[in-house]
Amino acid sequence: MSSEIERIQLMLTAHSRVYRNPGRKEMIQASIDNKEALVSACGNLATWTPIESTGRSPNDTVMVRRAESEASIDWDSPNNLPIEASTFDMLLEDMLATLSSKKQLYLTERVVGADARWALPVHTITDMALAALFTDNMFRPLPADMTPSVFAGKPFTLLVAAYDKLDRARYEGRLRKLPSGETSNMAVAMDFDRRLGIVYGSAYGGSVKKLIFTVMNYYLPAEGILPLHCSANEGPGGDTALLLGLSGTGKTTLSADPRRALLGDDEHGWSDHGIANFEFGCYAKLINLDPEKEPEIHRAVFHSAPYLEHGAIVENTMMYPDGHFDLFDERFTPNSRASYPLSFLSNIKSPPVGDHPKTILFLTADANGVIPPVSRLDHNQAMLWFLMGYTSKLAGTETGIIDPKTVFSRFFGEPFMPRNPHVYASMLGEKLRAHGTQVYLINTGWSGGSYGVGQRMDIRLTREMVQAALDGDLADTECREDKVFHLHAPVRCPGVPDPAVLQPRNTWADRQAYDQRAKKLAQQFSDHFDKAYGDKGIEPAVRNQCPGK
Question: Is the domain 282-345 a CATH 2.60.40.420 member?
Answer without folding.
Answer: no
